[in-house]
Amino acid sequence: xxxxxxxxxxxxxxxxxxxxxxxxxxxxxxxxxxxxxxxxxxxxxxxxxxxxxxxxxxxxxxxxxxxxxxxxxxxxxxxxxxxxxxxxxxxxxxxxxxxxxxxxxxxxxxxxxxxxxxxxxxxxxxxxxxxxxxxxxxxxxxxxxxxxxxxxxxxxxxxxxxxxxxxxxxxxxxxxxxxxxxxxxxxxxxxxxxxxxxxxxxxxxxxxxxxxxxxxxxxxxxxxxxxxxxxxxxxxxxxxxxxxxxxxxxxxxxxxxxxxxxxxxxxxxxxx
Length: 272
Description:
By secondary structure, the chain is an alpha/beta fold.
């Protein structure tokens, strides 16, 4: 697998804030201390300018469902393929590659093993000379967290198989918040209905990408599918502060941009 370089590690608005008053000379009770901590977290998430630090997907219906009008930077996001592709995550990987293609700066891509096809990323607009591939074995999450502490990166992507604990995801979310780096976990599983993919995490959004049959590319051969631009069903299954939804789109082009499917461009299916 071609790689641009290697990375080594030493180890793994609110419009008006709520203020809790405490009588002078008396220490804050545990309840007040907990309230202050929660308020501080909310203020960090909804700080002025947070909405500006996002990347629109370029499909109006999808961007309107997201609270910041796009993929929020400085946050953790999850993506997984659907159906038989859940194990290899090809569609989810290309979906993420298209997002990263429209960011500037280097990307750290953390792998369990060297099975990523770099030319496929380039086809979605993410050139290999921008990507630092790190083969981390079982230390995927520690390496990802360490990468999120380096502000020179545009994004950190990691491929994760198995359960993701709430504590581990919160560590990644906090690291992304502190550095302002986009953090994306590509979830892989041998089973498309793996319950671990639906367990609660601290991710701001959670996506499922399913490959659909390609349309005929030739007008005189309408019964010959598979020659046109690839299509995906993009499901936003969880969105903090937004609404879940489901859309049919054309897969990322060479610039990383999604396309509208002409016959369904004005329709979207809201997820239950």
